[in-house]
Amino acid sequence: MPDLGPKLRADLVDVPAYETAIRVDDHSGYRLHRNENSQPPQGGVLARISSAAMICHRYPDDRSGELTRRIADMIQVSPDHVVVGAGTTAICQQILLATIGHGDEAVFPHGPERYLTLSRVAGARAMQIPLDGYRQDLASMAAAVTDRTRVIFVCSPLSPTGTVIREPEMRAFLAHVPGDVLVVLDEEYRDYVREPGAVDGIELHREYPNVAVMRTFSKAYGLAGLRAGYAISGARVAEAIRTTALPFGVSVTAQLAATAAVQAGDQVRRRVDTLVSERNRLQRLLRSQGWPVPASQANFVWLPLGEAADDFALACADHGLLVRPYPGWGVRVTVSEPAVNDLIAFIVAGYPPP
Q: Start and end of every Aminotransferase class I/classII large domain (predicted)?
């Protein structure tokens, strides 16, 4: 019998890989496929990043103490409700490891790829619920809950469409979810939300012991390359999430940069306001061309191109623009500077709206 080498988990064979763009040079042109901040961090943050070089021979604070306290002060919660991690993807994985046992289920909407991949890697039975148009179908998600459900992920704003959950919808949803099921509100793009009545996970967390919230420093704060994010939950849940973290997982550089970024909050908000204004302008421009784009509350817009998604992505690549196609469905485009956004509108004008 031939030696096939080490035995590996058979259930990982068909776990989907995370795809981000048409396969072209990822380091040329405009990167509009990962929802990054197109601007580098502010000067004070850059100075703290540079200072990390002098202490990079030391292990980081495993509890991210100073950053934890800054976050707690910023959002007015107790520090023992804050979990700092190496970005929200790492925190998502920690949550799954803290909740999922053999045969347990995770429920989540179609759209964000990481829920499916990380759930499968954690050994969960993944229950991916189709969208209702461009929005999450909370009623169907609640109906999918069984006695083996341990965690539900709700994303607001939702990637890739940018739509939000309204507070009354979320409260009605929570009324149908058992209290022993953890509901995680993924709010990576919360800084860009301007829609009145949109859910605020931090406020819900104060009322519901089974609600946790994930937020990030990758988007509005411009620290995607350093990997820093956080979760807010009850103290008992927070401690379980910490238990599943890799030791020293948040680097010295990430901790110093994120701490400085919190202190630069006013500058961050001004940058976000500028981007939101440009996002709204781009959406108006696309609608004037007949495109039924959903009202994105994130730092990207959604183009319902259907079967033309890959062709449009290649056309953008020809102009030096990387965008994120979802084959057969549409394309997600990060909002950039006005001239680049105008170029997106010019390219999409060559395609018939649905």
A: 47-335
Q: What is the pLDDT of residues 154-163, one digit of tens each?
A: 999 999 999 9
The CB density around residue 314, as the number of other CB atoms within 10 Å, is 13
Task: In whole angstroms, give the CA distance from residue 78 to residue 148.
Answer: 31
> How far is it, in rounded angstroms, from Cα 209 to Cα 351?
48
Residue 294: is the preceding peptide bond cis (ω within 30°)?
no
Residue located via tokens 């020293």? 248
pLDDT band, residue 57 (cuts 50/70/90) = very high
DSSP 177-233: S-TTSEEEEE-TTGGG---TTB--HHHHHHH-TTEEEEEESSSTT--TTT--EEEE-
Which pair of structure tokens corresponds to residue 342?
A: 């105008």
pTM for the predicted model, two decimal places: 0.95
Q: Is the dihedral of CA 177, 183, 186, 190 positive or negative?
A: positive
